[in-house]
Amino acid sequence: MKVNTNPVRGMKDFLPDEAELREKVKRIIIDTYTSFGYRKIETPALEHLELLTGGDGGENEKLIFKVLKRGEKLDLASVKDEKDLSEEGLRFDLTVPLTRIYANNQGNIPLPFKVIQTDYVFRAERPQKGRYRQFMQCDIDTIGEKDYTAEIDLLIASSQALLNLGFKDFTIHINDRKILHMMAGKWGFGEKDHDNVFITLDKLDKIGVNGVSEELKSKDFNSGAISAMINDVTQFEAAEFNHLYLNEEVKKVIEAVSLVADGRYRIKFAPTLVRGMGYYTGMIYEIKIDGYPGSVSGGGRYDKMIGKRLGTDVAACGFSIGFERIVDIMMEKRSGEKSGEKKIAIIFDPEVHDAKKVYSEAESQKIINKCIVSVARKEKKFGRQLKKLYDQGFTHYGEFSDNFSPFTIKELKNEE
Amino acid sequence: MKVNTNPVRGMKDFLPDEAELREKVKRIIIDTYTSFGYRKIETPALEHLELLTGGDGGENEKLIFKVLKRGEKLDLASVKDEKDLSEEGLRFDLTVPLTRIYANNQGNIPLPFKVIQTDYVFRAERPQKGRYRQFMQCDIDTIGEKDYTAEIDLLIASSQALLNLGFKDFTIHINDRKILHMMAGKWGFGEKDHDNVFITLDKLDKIGVNGVSEELKSKDFNSGAISAMINDVTQFEAAEFNHLYLNEEVKKVIEAVSLVADGRYRIKFAPTLVRGMGYYTGMIYEIKIDGYPGSVSGGGRYDKMIGKRLGTDVAACGFSIGFERIVDIMMEKRSGEKSGEKKIAIIFDPEVHDAKKVYSEAESQKIINKCIVSVARKEKKFGRQLKKLYDQGFTHYGEFSDNFSPFTIKELKNEE
After folding, report:
1. Which whole number is the average pLDDT over B255-281?
2. How far apart are CA B210 and CA A44, in angstroms?
3. A88, B23, B129, B353: least CB-packed within 10 angstroms?
4. Is the pTM of this model over 0.95?
């Protein structure tokens, strides 16, 4: 039977070069956050649909992969609606599961709870270049800390993770939902229109000042408010860094992070930063790397979201590193580079009598050179075997037989 | 809205202690196999149902979590059968995806392809203690190596992984499907009955020699064959190590692995070892740890499985470390032990002026002590704050203000 051997639509296989880089990046991120006191937790890939469709996921709630009911629960005869077919789905983010695990274990968790999650999430989006239906998210969150030290800690730890990954020339953009509301009020927009105004303002990078102005006009907002806003936004653009609406909290965060950054990276007030998710209640932030469009990571404070499940509000803020984006950039940077890693194949004659000596040789090579060692049996067509090892990425080989002593390591060349 | 905050039925959340141990175990396994030349690959959690139900999964094919079709593809009005509702499902093992990724990339993959996979698989089994519907599998496989050096390498690398995880007193049990067939023939069972006989023999550990005998009688097999078999099996039990049916290949593997083991672990011929999966064609093996029932890992050769997809057979053998089992044993061992790790909280006065100094102090503590450092703002109820830090697992704290100099680290005690 010949079957389709492609991965399912919109998802991706990773062969060794990429899979190993992904593992490396993940470890650097986890290790950095761990050294700042964040602790790893894990939740299952499946969640109750009731939880996933609770309203915090926005558009993502429409992209859920739903799991078919099983056995007696699946009664095809009485199916009237999609709801009769499924009660569980694949998670579309890690924030919804985080609020669930916190709600479920709050008695056992001392606050503040500093959490790291690195796991796959699933969204049935229209497949497009560089975006997949299964992708890795790396989130850190601090639950139970009202103070802006939580934000300082998140931002310093995340910047350190990027430094440890080899990035420099990146900038943290920071704003506050409270500042956005304050500005919108001052410009003359009614409070009930704020979110709608922010949806348009969020497109500034893509459609420019004129685009924003046009869209707001088409939404029939007060033209005086629109021109007051456009006037300010244009000023922000020109001055690049505008302190007009900066509040005390954001200022303190910028000061502390700048001091720690010590010129290794930058942080700046970005009064037009909105970030999409409706659940943010306070500071919002994202990181941009010079030379790459868009942001590589972002997050914000969401003090009301957990309260929705618990009945009482719990302060929380989080930051998500764009894992897939970062791996893409690193793959791009790396292509062409030679890794410089030594990879030795130890080949032994089938007639060799002391298998132990072969393996202890392999063992000692590994220890001395900190390299990858693999043991293979010598093939009759030895030249072809060496060529094959070269193609597999081996850089050196050592031949072992009862007669060979001492054991020497030779470089592999691309010839048969 | 109050929703159910438990994980979905049969699945599990992992809080930090367990999640961090899982990460550690996974890294030790990956690093050990990497040092033996195995390379990591990754496939998506979802696969085409057509592939998953291809017949290699045995009973697992009945336990697939199927994903509901979406959009126009889901036409509720014309649904006649479950098949109309779903075309993708969550993988139930990593072997089926491995054969798919190999089939899909065979032109780009030089052989032998030594692979490591550590990923979640999903089975809708009846939930029971210690068994979950989502669990981690750690598989290594060698594709394209007919020679038994592949088995030697798999077994040595896997044993090394167990040693690196801190296990000793474990034994590799090894057999060969060819030996099983040869014995069954000699005992007098017809070739078409072999697999059915092996299904019963596989239960030997659970139901004992008498149980096996009774079950074979109830299956109406020839009583002469049954008593010949029971006679041999009893002998195996008594002698514990029986070379009567040992073949040359298994003997060579036992010799090589014993030499490398050098007394650190054991390997023995186990003529009644069957292992469930029908796709095994050659040597089969599992590892048992003294004092723990059942096996912690196992595998075998499956030279025909890839051929089913490609049309031409490709030699392959694999080994799977029972990740969840191993984590359970390690959690059990660890409970009660104190980790001994230093975890320092650096507390700073809200009035401190040099935030940079606080963070560089945190930074240097981390480097000097290789410990986890977290920065917190000093609270008014300082005693209560220290108690809270103690409860969070911090062992030490350092207080930082403009007046404190030099900076000293004190031990945290369980008192307010």
Report:
1. 89
2. 42
3. B129
4. no
